[in-house]
Amino acid sequence: MTVRVEKDGAVWTVIHSRHEARNAMDPDSAEALYDAFRAFDADDSARTAVFWGEGGAFCAGWDLKHAASLSGADALDPFDFPEEGEPPMAAMGPSRLDLSKPVIAAVAGPAVAGGMELAMWADMRVMEETAFMGVYCRRWGVPLIDGGTVRLPRLVGEGRAMDLILTGRRVDAEEALRIGLCEYVVLEGAAREKAEELAHDIARFPYSCVQADRRSARMQHGLSEQDALRQEWWNSKIEVTKGVEGAARFAAGKGRGGDFGDV
After folding, report:
1. Would you state the pLDDT for residue 255?
2. What's the CATH code, domain 3-203?
């Protein structure tokens, strides 16, 4: 089995373990990851997920040895987008899923080509100082079909995205942090620990409010400012009412001075 899930309360760590291939994605792994994240989203006890590649590599992309065994464009028919309805599983597994809960990618070693697309699918990225990303599939004429051309410009801006997409060059952790391609850089070997720490921090907050704000931030893409503000209001109006309870806890002395430790 190349995928397993380790649970710690409300935090699930989804582990891809195909280290002999630097966690390159084969069909079995793709399906197992897809199923694991769907199960996470459906489980009411789960709040935040960490996505980690075991063995020192996040994901080296689509398994090119498997790709070389395919014949013609028909091999990709199972991944075609329908004109209506939910899309099928992507070649890289979960990259088309629109989850209702946050996922944090814990990145060690390479997160390249399709692996970079998977890291960008997550809500946040923690990279080890020796980790790196890059559109390495540029060398072989394999296009980005798992969200890379959509999510990368949204994360780093169109100019920087074009640089990375067109050149395929390596992006080390320090540069990724500087341009907004990751949110944290940690020592080698510490990505999973940091990502799980963040996941537990997020999971302890009033959760419907976490989901509402996350949903609003994701849904505003492509909207005018006024339409986005309208969407934000109707998405989150009910949470303001719930927030009265939180205001009462503050009035009783909780969380003074920006204290997040006892809320």
Report:
1. 56
2. 3.90.226.10
